[in-house]
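Exercise 7.
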Amino acid sequence: MPDWYATALAVGVVPALAAIGVLAAVACAVRGDWRTGVGLGLDLWLAAGLLTLATVDTWIPVATVIVIVVVRQVATRVIDRSARLRA
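Solution. The predicted structure, written as tokens, is:
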């Protein structure tokens, strides 16, 4: 894999996805739909984590992505459960 690709992911794409995820979560929260914002932010965080897997040779980033997936699944289930309890 070319070095420029790894640099572009690490310096540009991954931080941009993280920033867009935070902005989307805040924008949805301001509109009153924070559940959608949290889900969208977690999806973009997951996309950034998956992109980092293309440039690594160790198991640490793989474990990081597994943690991201687990956090996303738990958060989504908790949000869905709290929404059902309110309805």
